[in-house]
Amino acid sequence: MPAEQKKILRDIMKEKRKILFQDHPNAGEKIVALFFNFFDLSPEAIVGGYWPMKSELDIKPLLNKLLNKGFRCALPCITSEGLIYRAWTSSTHLEKGTFHAFEPPSTAPVTIPNVLLVPLLAFDKEGHRLGYGQGHFDRFLHQHKVLTIGVGFKGQEVEKIPRQDHDFALDYILTEEGVVSRKKHSDF
Fold first, then answer.
1. Rounded Cα gap, residues 133 and 12, in angstroms
2. How would DSSP label each residue in 26-50?
3. Using CB atoms within 10 A of its CB, is residue 36 exposed (0-12), middle (13-18) or buried (19+)?
4. Dihedral pair phi/psi, residue 180, rounded to 5°
5. Which residues share a beta bridge with 100?
6. I need a labelling partner for 142 at 20 to 30 A (CA). Which of 38, 85, 116, 170 fits?
7. Cβ distance 115 to 49 under 8 Å?
8. Is 126 left (phi over 0), alpha (psi -120 to 50) or beta?
9. Using 50, 70 and 90 to split pLDDT, how confident is the model at 188?
10. pLDDT tens-digit profile of 17-62?
């Protein structure tokens, strides 16, 4: 039953996110200050981001600011073994990968981030996320303990995300209006 509920919610939220994307063209810029005002990352942190597709909240300004502050960044790549992260800088040439997502080339070093910025279609106050239904992030999180920050528009919040046993709750949600936390601020 949760899988069927997720499919219905996914269709609704894809359309809603398109509208939110159009209504909030500066959301990517807004989250930069919110991120650095809330999170105090270790200088050694490796931040795994994503290259935004379609109506995903554009985190490129945040990724560039992270690089400018000296943090290492990585972007996800879908391989036959699953989701991996490869090092990324502003000069990295990106290639179209699986699902037409832009990702670093196979020559970029594989790295394991300790902070993940995760795209989403919807979220709830308990940190549960509705993704695209492939399970790539959940499988990655079963293998690696990392700080997870979902990134989306405040309007993507719903009362409750249908859950399955393999689903992970995110530690935080970053929106253009602020940070939704299910952890104490000192937990990172």
1. 14
2. THHHHHHHHHHHH----TT-EEE--
3. middle
4. -100, 125
5. none
6. 38
7. no
8. alpha
9. very low
10. 999 999 999 999 999 999 999 999 999 999 999 999 999 999 999 9
